[in-house]
Structure prediction request, 228 residues.
Amino acid sequence: TQLLEQSPQFLSIQEGENLTVYCNSSSVFSSLQWYRQEPGEGPVLLVTVVTGGEVKKLKRLTFQFGDARKDSSLHITAAQPGDTGLYLCADPWGSNFGNEKLTFGTGTRLTIIP
Amino acid sequence: DVKVTQSSRYLVKRTGEKVFLECVQDMDHENMFWYRQDPGLGLRLIYFSYDVKMKEKGDIPEGYSVSREKKERFSLILESASTNQTSMYLCASSPGTSDYNEQFFGPGTRLTVL
Prediction:
């Protein structure tokens, strides 16, 4: 099981600003998932990135997978209060097709101030 | 709409009590998971199950057991609760039928052991 480091651990910014959070590993990811957890709820999948160098966009969120597949970033443009939450990266792993388990990073807790 | 439900949102128990946390999914998923979530430590896998009556240990199984008698239901059991098991417990399920399986989470049970 590899270790996933997320940075920063906490981030508090004003509405309308841009931000980037990071997920890094010492090992190569086969793929990487990003989840968002809102207060009082369980995590919800935002995106899965698979190919090195891949960029995926989800409205104001841009996800990038590093060329070497050892890191990923999430960039939010013009942050809104609804973006507040805990952002988690997760590494699917396991030996059986379809039975992947997830190793989660420790998360970035994002607060958007109105 | 897919749904994972957990029997309680909040639970307070005394040291030494036997505690049952119940999780039900209505998506006919093969895989089910139990995690605990602690500040600064992220989500850590306790146990998972990829079929009825099948279970495998995750990263932190000590002090816990599980039961999966029916496909839709996965129970986490604390045989003798201790204060260090005070935590947020999250249940999840995934289809187990394709690559990059998304995990669907319940809202969590916040357990306090006094």
About this structure: Chain B touches chain A at residues 4, 30-31, 33, 35, 40-45, 48, 50, 58-59, 90, 92, 94-103, 105-108 (CB under 8 Å). The longest strand of chain B covers residues 31-38. Chain B has no helices and eleven strands.
